[in-house]
Write a structure and sequence with these properties.
The complex is a heterodimer of chains A (274) and B (256). Chain A has 274 residues and is α/β, with parallel strands linked by helices. Chain A is 33% helix and 28% strand. Chain A contains nine helices and 13 strands. Chain B has helices spanning 2-20, 23-49, 61-92, 95-99, 106-134, 141-167, 175-188, 200-208, 210-223, 231-254, and strands at residues 51-54, 57-60. In chain B, strands 1-2 form a two-stranded antiparallel sheet. The complex binds adenosine-5'-triphosphate and magnesium ion. Residues 52-53, 93, 169 of chain A line the site of magnesium ion (MG).
């Protein structure tokens, strides 16, 4: 029987149209619905311009949905943003770090927006900085951080409120392989503690490895939602695919999520058996 | 209400935190200009003009300019913080966007922005008034009675700045309101001479712009010039209009 308590994140028939300067509208997201339960990692996989960030902006309650609703622990984020967002941690696609503060104060200040007292915030900040390999930068200003370090800090900032729902828009873009793995571990730890995670990504290995469920989104519509394994089984008929990687060089390999993605979002020439 | 106050105060405190790290910068950038005006016009030109007939009351030119620089400081400080400061925070730093996805709403962020800009500019204007008290031009009491005028005047000019920031496509475009609105007010709204010296038609135009009302009220409180009651509705009409419009424009710009 189903659990009575509402899921950490529920997106219900979400559509979003942008007003265009000419007076028309452009529908970036159409009728998207999904749920993320506790301890689950849910992936939004889609090409550039698919509508991932738009969906995420609506989940944050920053953009109002044109139709549909977003519920965080059962609270509508659009009508009750203050209550709903108490349980939400977000890492946006673009850099939104506050460059007026140094690395540690950045986190402490952000915690203050969540009713978290300074003392608790300082403790958490220290642990997060350690976890993300930023301890030696603790008193530096943001300008002196490299792109990847900023990205790590922004993910760390999303975790400072110990959110029930963690939303990450392309969190690993710009990270080196080490940092990426480190982040995967952090996310795995967070979900073990019960956090529901929504992330968007372009990396197939990341999605396949981290996500229990994946929504393939294309031109604002969800083409399919399922576990990575089931998606591969469902959409790729064969056990083996052949690809001409260089003229005259054929590779035979097991089908992967990328094949599903490419099959659903467009066609790639040269891969046999899709 | 208490939730709202909590949210707005968090935003205000963020600004205050940043501010405390650059007090020297603030003091230099805020007070050097008024002090230069005070010296150049108050003391320099003041020696030539001597006593002035301001709206029927004789006052020294020095006192006249000292009181004018109070409103001018509210204008410059409020406008520049609301325009350039807010533009940088909104466009380059994305501070608004980062805070407005926490339990604090964009509405509260914008109130915090306006209130901070107003506070900062009002303190600067009061600082100028303090100089006038120290030089013996105004009575110490005027520091107290000036608080509402300085605050609401600064609030109004911050709204003018924030509205400019909301409409500016890039930071250079802030020069439009700066040259078309701020500079004309600076020169024609009675900072350096009584607007009664202007031709009748220009006087009417000058009264449309809010700095004239601010200057009039400041001079009633500091120099005892006759109270021009219509300055009060003019000030509050502009204040309401600019606060409402600047917030609406910012929402339009950020919330798609
Ligand atoms: N403010 C806007 N006004 C009009 N159209 C917009 C606006 N923001 C995004 N779009 C359009 O909406 C569509 C979805 O954009 P979105 O940013 O959600 O894509 P995305 O999946 O996050 O892409 P990426 O992988 O490049 O980040 C795109 O066609 C984009 O051009
Ligand atoms: Mg995106």
């Amino acid at each position: 029987m189903s659990d009575q308590s509402p899921p950490p994140l529920r997106v219900a028939n979400l559509s979003k149209s942008y007003r265009l300067p000419g007076g028309g509208a452009f529908e970036a997201v159409h009728d998207v619905s999904f749920e993320v339960t506790a301890k689950q990692c849910f992936g939004l996989l889609g090409p550039n311009g698919a509508g991932k960030s738009t969906t995420i902006q609506c989940i944050c309650g920053f953009y109002p949905p044109t139709t549909g609703n977003v519920f965080i622990s059962g609270i509508d984020v659009h009508t009750k943003p203050k209550q709903a967002r108490q349980g939400l941690g977000v890492c946006n696609q673009e850099d939104t770090l506050d460059s007026d503060f140094n690395v540690t104060n950045q986190l402490i200040r952000h915690a203050a927006y969540f009713y978290i007292d300074r003392h608790t915030a300082r403790d958490r900040a220290q642990k997060l900085l350690e976890r993300f390999g930023l301890t030696d930068k603790a008193t530096q200003m943001i300008e002196s951080l490299s792109g990847g370090l900023r990205r790590r800090l922004q993910v760390a900032r999303a975790l400072i409120s110990e959110p029930k729902v963690l939303v990450l828009d392309e969190p690993t873009t710009g990270l080196d392989p080490d940092a990426r793995r480190e982040l995967w571990e952090v996310l795995t730890e967070a979900r073990e503690k019960g956090t529901a995670i929504l992330l968007s990504t372009h990396y197939m290995d990341e999605a396949e490895r981290l996500c229990d469920r994946i929504a393939i989104i294309y031109k604002g519509r969800i083409l399919d939602i399922d576990s990575p394994e089931r998606l591969i089984k469902k959409h790729i008929a064969r056990d083996e695919v052949e690809e001409e990687v260089r003229p005259g060089v054929l590779w035979k390999r097991k089908p992967n999520l990328e094949d599903v993605y490419l099959k659903l979002t467009g066609s790639r020439l040269g891969v046999e058996g899709l | 209400m208490s939730d709202w106050l909590w949210g707005v105060s968090r935003v205000w405190l963020r600004y205050y935190d940043v501010f405390t790290k650059s007090v020297v910068f603030y003091v230099v950038t805020t007070f050097v200009q008024p002090v230069l005006y005070l010296l150049a016009f108050g003391v320099g030109v003041g020696a030539l003009v001597g006593i002035l007939n301001a709206n029927g009351t004789p006052v020294t030119y020095r006192s006249f300019v000292f009181s004018g620089v109070i409103g001018q400081t509210a204008l410059f400080s409020g406008f520049f913080e609301g325009a350039y400061g807010a533009f940088v925070r909104m466009y380059y730093q994305r501070v608004f966007q980062a805070i407005a996805i926490t339990p604090i709403t964009l509405s509260e962020v914008l109130w915090g922005e306006l209130l901070w800009d107003a506070t900062k500019a009002a303190v600067a204007a009061e600082g100028v008034a303090l100089i006038g008290v120290l030089t013996g031009d105004f009575s110490p009491w005027s520091l107290l009675t000036l608080v509402p005028v300085c605050f609401f005047g600064s609030f109004l000019f911050a709204g003018m700045g924030l509205m400019s920031a909301a409409y500016a496509r890039d930071i250079d475009q802030l020069s439009y309101p700066q040259y078309l609105l701020v500079m004309p007010m600076f020169l024609f709204c009675g900072v350096f001479y009584p607007i009664e010296a202007l031709p009748q038609a220009l006087q009417v135009v000058a009264w449309v712009f809010p700095l004239t009302a601010v200057n009039s009220l400041v001079r009633t409180l500091t120099l005892g010039l006759p109270f021009q009651w219509w300055a009060v509705p003019i000030l509050f009409a502009w204040l309401t209009l600019l606060v409402v419009l600047s917030r609406r424009a910012m929402f339009r710009r950020l919330v798609k």
